[in-house]
């Protein structure tokens, strides 16, 4: 009996999960543009290191990348600063909520890791590197376009404006770190860059493609481009595994068994080392803020494909 | 043998302390305008409920009021909001440093008391009350002028500008509370008002006069004006006693035994209930940020006058 | 028209408060012996520095002293160790609940003040001073007997046993501090002493008498005995003012305006400097753990007598 | 050219690391029995799912298992309580030191994960399950003997006694959780069991063998015994990956890229899913308390064998 193909498994898992759970969870509603998203959307896209692709549902529809962008700014910052980045941000799990300021006070303005908000803001400051926010935002967007091999990726200005208008906690974090001399750029420039990077719109298809270099030790397996060193790729994957899902990173490690990063837009990027990259999108979030149906789809897909590293 | 007069005691205590300790402590140096202050300055002024005055040294020289202004904005806010103010700020000692943000996170954006920075910012927001910062600053300045019976009290613009340029922690606190909906005004307006109120320049003579209403249950004993209700006056005094000296409020209660409020400009306002108000100024601070020589002078004066309430 | 006498005022306040509020609040129920206490009890006793006494209600009935005992062990420890005590326990308000362990970790096993549980345990360790718990308990009891001029004061063994059987948090605090080398005696000995001191039974009449030395700078005004130095008496009063009512010390300072210490048995000892000592007892507690009706009675009495120091 | 065999690689890595770094790090010295250990010891043992073994150096010498025992008590507790265990202990990284009590207070006595001390104590309580400490200790020891297929594994009584005599922080944690009703057994029984389990002596050879079931989804690949369900095995591995190395779990995930658990005795157990189990021992610890040379050896071995999951 022939083994099911990747396409068959993706279709089967997608259908099973979508039929049973479509619309579950609670769509992020802290800004209007996110609250308006149709909760019934569900997309899934896989791309392997050999270039095979498989998709299900709304894999072609753009959604708000939100915190998944932190993976790509970390990539940029690591290439720019190298190990020096780690004097400004840690790489250990935080044990606190994504926007907690308590740890920052105890540790003198050095965030625990690049995926909590404070850490991502430091990383964005490193990417900003004295440029204008416009230049840095264009750089981040173009990096994502290049990695995704797609020139249509764009910032959603309405989302960026709303993020800025309601992002008091992020202003607090940035000013707090600035007070500890752990931001070089002006708070406003750093945060504008940060809010715009979170407001990029991307499809599952594009996102999986953009993350594929992390499955092959930093080398894009389809075009041979070296994106980051093998060491940096391993570092990013390790951080995705231990810190990629806020207060439920341990849970995701168990359920899916793969490095991943979620965003409140309902997307999740997952890396299958040496094999593939997977992107899923379903807007409803579970109580810790990760896509509820998306996580479930990844769990089932990883089980079917025997992808869990554990 | 006749008892020493107030003037004699003030002169004796002033001379004794100034001779032995003048210049002790460390002048605040986080902004240039404060760092430039002559560390050898020392002023002491007492005014009684009967209108008797006694002074020593530089009691006629203006200095930066800094956190002592919090007493007067609290007075204004209490009169404006009454007990409703206490839904937005507590009135218990904090047990944390004056600029800690940890307690704020645990208690959902409600500061412990009106004298830690976060609490004072909320109070300033209550005073701002939808006006422009210019209007609110003028109101605070005019209140102080009226209480001090002196029209020369003015904001030091250089200090205000420096405070704003380096006040990242205050921006963090304000944005943090704004994120919890505990600021009504725009962060920038509230903080500009706050930085300006802290930058008012006042003399010991004026400061003692301005605080005198707190010694007589809210009634200015010299002109009969009712400034606050007896209850509010008692409340302010109680908060000065338990929270007026940052992390050394308990120590001040022991040493001096009177309600007081210090500022990093080196000033301290102290209330002798039913008797008098005292202001002292000496720029050098002890390690918790209170005027070192000023505290000593108050301790000796309170002992000589048998003013300690304990 | 003649001024009301102390006795008349005590009777009037006692009757007014008891009539309107008797039984209000919630009796401590974490151990059976406390839970059984009749919630309608209400006692009030005043003794002046001239020896005048006035009482109302159940002032002659013994109740469980609980945390009020901390005033007397602090007295003992200060006389024994003097200023050296302050290397082991602070004297600033804590801003945390009475049994919080968080501050202890941040400050390496040194409690904020002698009235939070951790601080009181350190003070008890200082009183234990290498003796057996029996000897230390007898010492504390005898001190209280001597101060109260009454030999019937006794430990309630049932309460002490229950406290020990349910005092896990206190065991946690003691072991935690032992781990920081801030306890000299064995944990079990220190805690047995502590639980017994909290289980002493005393009447309002006895308690007011026992605390009277604090109203006269450490000198018992009725028999001329020097109990503590004036400086130590002032220190104890200052700590009572700033830390005597858990998370509501600032509130008590405002409402009553006097140094005081409460216990979960429903008693409160209050000092009127240079005038008198007051003890009140009503078992129902408010939400922060202080006697609800007792606090009210003190507030009214202080207002009538114009005793507030503010 | 033939590929190097496992034995050759283990020998080469062992020699390279031992030659260059033997004795590096700081031996745990909080109890005499640990402080006496020869810092130059170094052992390494690998066992594959096919039963192939390879060793280097002191792989035959017993050392103190310490926190690595937590893997085996977690195994026992999961089989006993199943998912109900997770109501009493979390499974997320803690972001705090291994013995912190702060998180416990904020989260009402529920430890973050089974590998911080508080969590391990809860797990031990679940294993104790109403039995005597002697019975529970024998159960844990026998489980380890059975898994390691070796009957000589024994508790070091001197170590257990010393742990108990100096374990004030653990007493604090246990009493604290008992106060939140998150321990069922008497504190003393739970801790005696805990101290004894940490005092088991085991060799690298035995430890690798004992952990092998975690490499094959809970099934011992050499004798076919089902130790835990595949789901529980995956859970344990995920927790080892995200929480196995105290405050350096993220770092270990990057450096070695495998689930692992360290102990202050200098040992580390590492699982290579679907392939092998590895144990290393070198007593000198790095500044976060993990074996310095042991970690290095694992890093090099994982790199040579291409075992990192990232």
Q: What does this protein look like?
A:
Four copies of one chain form a homotetramer. With 310 residues, chain A is of the alpha+beta class. Chain A is 46% helix and 12% strand. Chain A has 13 helices and ten strands. In chain A, the strands form three sheets. The first copy, chain A, has a five-stranded antiparallel beta sheet with strand order 3-2-9-8-7. A three-stranded antiparallel beta sheet of chain A has the order 4-6-5. A two-stranded antiparallel sheet of chain A has the order 1-10. The longest helix of chain A is centred in the first third of the chain and has 16 residues, at 6-21. The interface between A and B is medium-sized, with 16 and 16 residues.
Note the run of SSEs of chain A as H and E. Answer: HEHEEEHHHHEHHHEHHHEEEEH
Q: How far is the first residue's CA from the last residue's CA of chain A?
A: 27 Å
Largest sheet of chain A, order of strands side by side?
A: 3-2-9-8-7
Global mean pLDDT of chain A: 95
Number-wise, the strands of chain A total 10
Number of helices of chain A: 13
Task: Estimate the helix proportion of chain A, in percent.
Answer: 40-55%
* Largest binding interface between chains: A-D, 32 and 32 residues
Proportion of residues in β-strands of chain A: 5-15%
Poorly predicted ranges of chain A (pLDDT <50, ≥5 residues)?
A: none
Principal-axes shape call of chain A: globular
Q: Describe the biggest sheet of chain A?
A: 5 strands, antiparallel
Tell me the structural class of chain A: alpha+beta
**Assembly state:** homotetramer
Radius of gyration of chain A: 18 Å
